[in-house]
Each structure stands twice: as C-alpha cells, then as structure tokens.
Specification:
alpha/beta; globular; 5-stranded parallel beta sheet; binds BIS(adenosine)-5'-pentaphosphate; 3-stranded antiparallel beta sheet
Length: 213
C-alpha cells in the first residue's frame, strides 16, 4: 500500500509516519528529513535548500521531485509500500509525481489529510525537540522525554529545529495555505483523500486511520 500524508506544519505527519512504519513496515520518504540530512552532510542540494528552509519557503519543485522520484525507483521501497511525508506540496509536484508514476506499476492508494487547528500547530511546533543522534521526535508539552533534553531511545541531546522559531513558523503556515492546501481538492477529486482530526492524541488518530485503511 502506498500513502501520501498531507497537512499543515506540525499536524503530526512525521509522528504518524513513525507509528505506521513501526506497526506496518512501510518505507518512509520525508522530503524535509532528506533535505535536513543533505544539509548536515553539506551536499550541494542541502546547501541550496538551506536558504529556502530557513525562511520557511518551499525548495524548488524540480529539486524535491528529483529526490523523490529517485527514491521511488528503489525496489525495496516499492516492495514495502511507502509513506510520502511532506511531498507533494504543490499542485505542480503532484502532477510531476502522477506523470512519473504513470510509466510504472506503482499506484497511490490513500492520501491521508491531517487537519489541525492553528492553536495546536503553534503549540506543537514551539514544543518540538528532536534527537541529534537518532532523529526521534519529542515534545516538551505533549510527548516529553523521560529525562529532560535527552533522547529516550539513544540518550543523545535533543535540539530545536531552526525553522520552528516563531517568525519562520508564521511564514510556513502562509506558504502551506497558499501552495499546499489546494492539494486537498486535487486528491479529493481523484477519490483517494481521507480526512482525519489531527488535533486528537496520536493513539486516537492512529485508531481512526486503521479503521479506514
Ligand atoms: P518538513 O520537515 O516536511 O516540515 P513540515 O511539513 O512543516 O512538517 P513538520 O515536520 O514541521 O510537522 P509534522 O506534521 O511532521 O509534525 P510532527 O509529527 O513533527 O519540511 C521542512 C522544510 O523543508 C519546508 O519548510 C521546506 O522548506 C522544505 N521541504 C520539505 N518538503 C518539501 C517539498 N515537498 N517541496 C518543497 N520544499 C520542501 O509533530 C510536531 C510536534 O508535535 C512533535 O513535537 C510531536 O511530538 C508533536 N505531536 C505530533 N502529533 C501529536 C499528537 N497527535 N498529539 C500530541 N503531540 C503531537
């Protein structure tokens, strides 16, 4: 099964993807994570993406689409079924994805739309902390680590993402409304959109989704 996760920043796409992967063994393709890794490794793509990400803007469509299409060619990913998290993010990216997949046997089964209120989003993003070692996600308000500022899984230090600062979050939300929200209608018209209440606790969201998939 192949799934796309759509929703505003902080709606819980990464958290849900983690849960689905743990329980169902999907391959995870998160464009945000791939770009952050590219930046940490100081690759050309990473350094080019940095200026956009720091401003909360979208990295050019052709850059992210190339990354995703390369991943989707991997046999392991096709075999496991994938979760696309944070891609597509524009109608153009969605059309490029459709075009890329049309010459393969890979099909999209569901687009999971996590709807979340602005109040939830701002609280979650300002509280998010990430492990420097294994990348696990925590939240000082909603998913606290057992020891302050340390990862439960590997004990490494937790940090705050640069683009989770208040000014950047505001821009990310504006960019989401303008460029990404139109995807909801795009996929609704294709008949593969399922909408879930992202304001709920992750266990409840997961159960809601399992009833549909
Ligand atoms: P990306 O990393 O994709 O960021 P995003 O879409 O803004 O999403 P987030 O990672 O902020 O949020 P999330 O929905 O995954 O929430 P999470 O589960 O972490 O992209 C970053 C940047 O990269 C973009 O701004 C852009 O520049 C670039 N980029 C990426 N893809 C691109 C593309 N396709 N095209 C162009 N540019 C691209 O949860 C947030 C917090 O809340 C966590 O702390 C978590 O623990 C907590 N939480 C989550 N769910 C719950 C819950 N149900 N209850 C309580 N707490 C919860």
């Amino acid at each position: 099964m192949n799934i796309i996760l759509v929703g505003p920043p902080g709606a819980g796409k990464g958290t849900l993807a983690e849960r689905l992967i743990e329980n169902k063994g999907f391959a995870h393709i998160s464009t945000g994570q791939i770009l952050r890794e590219a930046l940490a490794n100081k690759t050309k793509v990473g350094l080019e993406a940095k200026e956009y990400m720091d401003r909360g803007e979208l990295v050019p469509d052709e850059v992210v689409t190339r990354i995703v299409m390369e991943k989707l060619k991997e046999k392991e990913i096709q075999k496991a079924g994938f979760i696309l998290d944070g891609f597509p993010r524009t109608i153009n990216q969605a059309e490029l994805l459709d075009k890329g997949l049309s010459s393969t046997s890979v099909r999209l089964d569901y687009v999971i739309y996590l709807e979340a209120s602005e109040k939830t989003i701002i609280r979650r993003l300002s509280g998010r902390r990430i492990c420097r070692g294994c990348g696990k996600n925590f939240n000082i308000y909603t998913m606290q680590p057992k020891k302050e500022s340390l990862c439960d899984a590997c004990g490494s230090e937790l940090y705050q993402r640069d683009d989770d600062k208040e000014e950047t979050v505001k821009n990310r939300l504006d960019v989401y409304k303008e460029s990404t929200e139109p995807l909801i209608d795009y996929y609704r018209k294709k008949g593969i959109l399922e909408t879930f209440d992202g304001d709920k606790q992750i266990d409840d969201i997961y159960s809601d989704i399992m009833r549909v998939l």
